[in-house]
Amino acid sequence: MKEIVRQLLPFIKRFKRHVYLNVFFNILYALFSALAFVSLIPMMNVLFSKTKVVTKAPVWTGIAEIKTYGEQFLNYKVSGYLENGNAQMALLIVVSLVIFTFLLKNLFGYFAMQHMMYLKNGVLNSLRKDMYDKIIKLPLSFYSKRQKGDVMARVLGDINEMQNSFFIVLELIVREPATIIFSLIIMFSFSWKLTLFVLLFIPVSGFLISRIGKSLKSNSLKAQQESGRLISIVEESLTGLKIIKSYNAENTFRNHFINSADRILKLSNKIGLKNNLAGPVSEVLGIATIAVLLWYGGQLVLIDNVIAGTDFLAFMGLAYGILTPAKAISKASYRVKNGIAAADRVFEILHEKDNMEDIPNAKILDGFTKELSINNISFKYDNDLVLKNFSITVPKGKTVALVGQSGSGKSTIANLVTRFYDINEGSILIDGNDIKNVTKKSLRSLMGLVTQDSILFNDTIKNNILIGQPNATDDQIIDALKIANAWEFVKDLPQGMETNVGDAGNNFSGGQKQRISIARAVLKNPPIMILDEATSALDTESERLVQVALENMMKNRTSIVIAHRLSTIQSADQIIVMQNGRIVEQGTHVELIKKDGMYKRLVEMQSFE
């Protein structure tokens, strides 16, 4: 708990004004909550003819005697009206006092809740923003072993759980303890014996409740992890719906979902059963306290005459005023277990180290003038090396193609050149600068990436293209669409560039999506272009249109083409043939055909992967 609060402090400090005002109004609320019950005593004295007669106006003797002065002044006024036969005015005074006290109590409570709302919503909003920033900054290697659904559950579900449970503590941390303290001070002024009697039951209640809620955190953590798995199943089901339906695999995925949902149900029921015990346990203990208090206090009133009957009724109200915040704290202790488990998962992401951060004083690349060279690099995702002592040089303005069977390491080159992953050995240089010593932002600003999967976002065609160049004009966008061979279908759409592409671009065909992706890369206008199997997923007609777009885009650019089909590499300045992470052949198309080696066999099989 202390660790979570420590981690939350930087976020809470951003809204410290609301913290101070919340504390201020909560103290006033607690004070008037206690005084509200005291204000009932004069009214009951009037009703039961117990008002003390004061014939002389009291004299102010200082703040230390304010309680005595207030009682005497009120009794002086009320008894005066009663003596003159004006009971209605006397009753109006004491009723007005009650209304005024309760009004101030609720007004201060409202102000405290308003500032707590601003604090709570502000902190949660800051958490969401920081968490999203962290998610998009972390390297791809972080996500290679994680479920997307689990990350989504942390951003959405766990932060909401913190709001619903953990932040209750912030609401109660001042108001309820202060209410108890002020109530106890006034109760001690009535009868220290009765007050000690009440205090005996509070530790017993706290002990029982803490015993019941001990296992809540572990169950809450399991439930939140399982929620992440459930979201992953839903996300994968929606992404792969065509495959699921075509293979009649609905029952398989339904069973996965049902099993996960049932596990969440069992865990939720366990948590709920213990949560639900908080109310009844505290209620029973409260009733027991009140019952014993009535028995013992009744003796003090009726037999010992230690305390007046009207004072005893107010004392009972104050005792109830203690039990109510005590019950609120006990219930919150249950729910905070859920919040702590959620906070642990949120802060685990926020404190995740970025192992690919820019080095201090990293160089900013402002252009590409000479060559990109890959020197004796070795790389592995897990245990086995994917690339071994791999070296190539790509001069400015030239096109180098990488070909080979699936798993030979071609796409890994694209991941390493763009520094999505860091190499284990060797170096990658741009104009003699090691990419580990330059900022990732300036490195990637020099590169345009077109992948096999045409990744479009659920937005307009225009906004998808503007990602690489947000300030581009409509004319520049149209020029990019023309180069990408996409303007021919975009101009005929009813809304043109303002047409929404749909979820993952599903309103368009594969070839159309790929041409929009190419237009995005064209508009960015980078000096280095990386094409990662850009036509491998297309039919013949779409491939022809996309290939024209690629040729337009690659003019006068440095290009690395990861090839699947012969059509994309035939005119490359150099073709690198890869196998098991090594170079087995290299040369132009004509030179490699003459060698009658692996490249020729791949051409004959038309199996560039």
From TrEMBL:
Xref: SUPFAM superfamilies: ABC transporter transmembrane region (SSF90123), P-loop containing nucleoside triphosphate hydrolases (SSF52540)
Key word Nucleotide-binding present: yes
Pfam families: ABC_membrane (PF00664), ABC_tran (PF00005)
Chain ranges passing through the membrane: 20-41, 89-111
GO cellular component annotations of the record: plasma membrane
Entry membrane topology: Multi-pass membrane protein
Record-given protein name: ATP-binding cassette, subfamily B, MsbA
Main location per the UniProt record: membrane
Domain ABC transporter as annotated: residue spans: 372-605
Record-linked Gene3D superfamilies: ABC transporter type 1, transmembrane domain, P-loop containing nucleotide triphosphate hydrolases
Molecular function, one GO term: ATP hydrolysis activity
Record carries keyword Nucleotide-binding: yes
Sequence ranges assigned to domain ABC transmembrane type-1 in this UniProt record: 73-338
Coiled coil stretches, renumbered: none
Keywords for this protein: ATP-binding, Membrane, Nucleotide-binding, Transmembrane, Transmembrane helix, Transport
InterPro entries reported for this sequence: AAA+_ATPase, ABC1_TM_dom, ABC1_TM_sf, ABC_transporter-like_ATP-bd, ABC_transporter-like_CS, P-loop_NTPase, Type_1_exporter
Compartments, as annotated in UniProt: Cell membrane
